[in-house]
Amino acid sequence: MGFFLETLISGLMVGMLYSLVALGFVLIFKASGVFNFAQGAMVLFAALAMARFAEWLPPLLGLQNKILSNAIAFVLAMLTMVVVAWLIERLALSRLVNQQGVTLLMATLGIAYFLDGFGQSLFGSDIYKLDVGLPKDPLFLLEGTFQGGILVNKEDLYAAAIAAVLVSMLALFFQKTATGRALRAVADDHQAAQSIGIPLNRIWVIVWSVAGFVALVAGIIWGSKLGVQFSLSLVALKALPVVILGGLTSVPGAIIGGLIIGVGEKLSEVYIGPALGGGIEIWFAYVLALAFLLVRPQGLFGEKIIDRV
Amino acid sequence: MLYRENGQFKVSYAADQQIFPILQDRVAVALMLVFAFVAVPLLASDYLLRAILTPFLILSLAALGLNVLVGYCGQISLGTGAFMAVGAYAAYNFFIRIDGMPMLAALLLGGVCATAVGVVFGIPSLRIKGLYLAMATLAAQFFCDWAFLRIQWFTNDSTSGSVSVPALNAFGLPIETPVQKYLFCLALVAVFALLIKNLVRSHIGREWMAMRDMDVAAAVIGIRPIYAKLTAFAVSSFVAGVAGAMWGFIYLGSWESAAFNIDRSFQLLFMVIIGGLGSIMGSFFGAAFIVVLPIVLDQVLPALGAGIGLRFDTATVSHVTLMIYGALIVFFLIVEPHGLARLWSIGKEKLRLWPFPH
């Protein structure tokens, strides 16, 4: 039982990180109808920027304070992501308005290749350590109930807290601010939004910046756990079944879907994996999402209107 | 002036139905075939044949298969790599496990296995489409990656996980030198291109296109969606499977499942989109573009860097190549979303009127 709970919790933690990446997907899909394959590349790019700024800044400015230099690096990385968002909107998306979904999908793949190459030639392509001060020591819970207790990483707990704060901030932003309302209006209907004077281009830049922000947070959490390296870019592929499971247009769906996929992946790996030869994590999420699609094509929380054939 | 159809009258049904109704087109295609079959093997260097032309031909075939699905039937697939892998591994198992199995038969049987897998993973397309379908085919991709890596039986229990084929021959002729490999691929690709061209002109191709353009309307006029979609999946994955088997047998010689990973699927989708959706010619253009581009960039970049006094190391070159590749893809999608085949047909249209403006 203790082992089961441990697996469950580690699955929840991984799932939460998937949710963060999936959140970026959902935000962009909602606001511009683009299925953003570049989200993974954005996570890598943001994490690389953060890691390298945090490394370059202290000697440059003579800073001793770790928190301060990390904060400045964070702001700089965020600014970089805004510039990237602006460039993507200016150079690619605004010229691809009204194209088919698959063309846009391919365009974001092109952007993903570009960002991968650009990030690595700008910031280097080694594995970088990213230390934002998350504690790494393990924590034992419920030692009275189970023998030896349940092993939980403190880092994971902090990460979960950060993710929760992030999601509630986003929810507030979307529900309570004027910009958030404009974003939702654009998500509902481009033309109607434009006709009442919401500038589409600016909205897209904002959405991509917000997605960049989410990517930065996801990148920092993953990066401080596993080091900043190219494999971060592949996280996006794990986030795809998450969005499909949760529904392409639903923010809560992305969160819950991420948790389901994370837990399902870990539990299946531990309990079914050995019988199948191991490594089933790679496809389990996809097959789960696929099976789900056959029963409920719009996903858990997706809009009911869907192209059913 | 030269390219004009004036005075070419069709006087029989056969003449009305031919693939190239214009005499100049027929001559041009015949010349191109002669050039490809005779002149290229005589003139091209071994490097050109081995490293560029053979992969170009095989990937064009795979792109052709994908184009049937995406371009003609309108179903997005991100799992072509998986179907290629199924073809390659099935062909390998037929070839190794059955004594005296001719290679060509093994290749085609590999295609048949890929067809079966393709149809199974095509079943979700009856319920879902667009991006959701893309996801479903991604499931095929990851599942096959895993299966060929982990299930020992497929790799004939080889310890390293990679498989290799012994010396090849077809109809008693050896296929060993680059020229022989090139000719073998060219012959197969030409036959398949002809078959597919005729398939998309037939009633079944029309069903696919009707399904692509508007599925509800197609169903109303009596096209069965199940039949149309699953045949498209079947044909597409058969061709992809044969291409995959050729990729393994002829181009690579020995391979492991990473040769058919998700990047291959993306690459093929790029070929189809940059070449032109729903165009046979486009598949070849797209394959040429995607195969040649990285090679050219690899060659040109260091030279260019040396020209302006910069020295690139190999890592930088590969990153810059990635950047330019991505940027060019976006650029192409912006300036010509209908692909290179559209440019080709615009060129032909202009040529028909030249030198008069109307």
**How large is the count of helical segments of chain B?**
14
Number of strands of chain B: 4
Order of helices and strands of chain A: HHHHEEHHHHHHHH
Biggest sheet features of chain A: 2 strands, antiparallel
> Terminal Cα separation of chain B, in Å?
13 Å
Major sheet summary line of chain B: 2 strands, antiparallel
The shape of chain B is: globular
**Second CATH tier, the architecture of chain A:** Orthogonal Bundle
Question: What's the tally of helices of chain A?
Answer: 12
Structural class of the secondary elements of chain B? mainly alpha
Range of strand content of chain A? under 5%
- Specify which chain pair forms the largest interface: A-B, 49 and 48 residues
According to CATH, the fold-level topology of chain A is ABC transporter involved in vitamin B12 uptake, BtuC
Distance between the termini of chain A: 44 Å
User: What is the arithmetic mean of pLDDT of chain B?
Assistant: 86
**Rg value of chain A:** 20 Å
Strand order of the largest sheet of chain A: 1-2
Assigned CATH architecture of the largest domain in chain B? Orthogonal Bundle
Oligomeric description of these chains? heterodimer
Using the coordinates above, name the CATH class of chain A. Answer: Mainly Alpha
Using brief descriptors, characterize the structure shown.
heterodimer, A: mainly alpha, ABC transporter involved in vitamin B12 uptake, BtuC, two-stranded antiparallel ribbon, 2 strands, globular, B: 358 residues, mainly alpha, 2 domains, 4 strands, 72% helix
